[in-house]
Design a protein that fits this description.
The chain is mostly helical and about 130 residues long. The chain contains six helices and two strands, in the order H-H-H-E-E-H-H-H. This is 4Fe-4S Wbl-type domain-containing protein.
Length: about 130
Amino acid sequence: MTEGPHGAAIDAAYDIISTHASGGDCGACRLDWCPTAEWALWVVVAEPAAARPDARQMVTVVARQVMAAHWPSAVDGCRPCGLPDCDRIRTAGPWLEVHDPGYIPPPIQALMRSRRPTDDELRDITGMD
């Protein structure tokens, strides 16, 4: 790594974010979460002066991944760390509130009420005339 204007850590964080946003594996990835991506997101969010406007979409993708991995699945808290007040959610949440308002992790979207089907759609689904 070369030393940049904001240091090697921010450069490494953006490299990791780029890898994860494009669907890559950094070598530290677990089944459905990655502690290295969480670190990279924290570095980028914690240092607003080092923000790269051209990387906003990639950071948003990684923030979604982190939020989906740590969304509480039970009373005990999030799945990977089991904390009721998860630091990863507190890192990804504010980023998503600003850059992707209204984002809801896919497992939660599946539980939300959808629009009611029309009569014609119900007839097609059930096969009843």
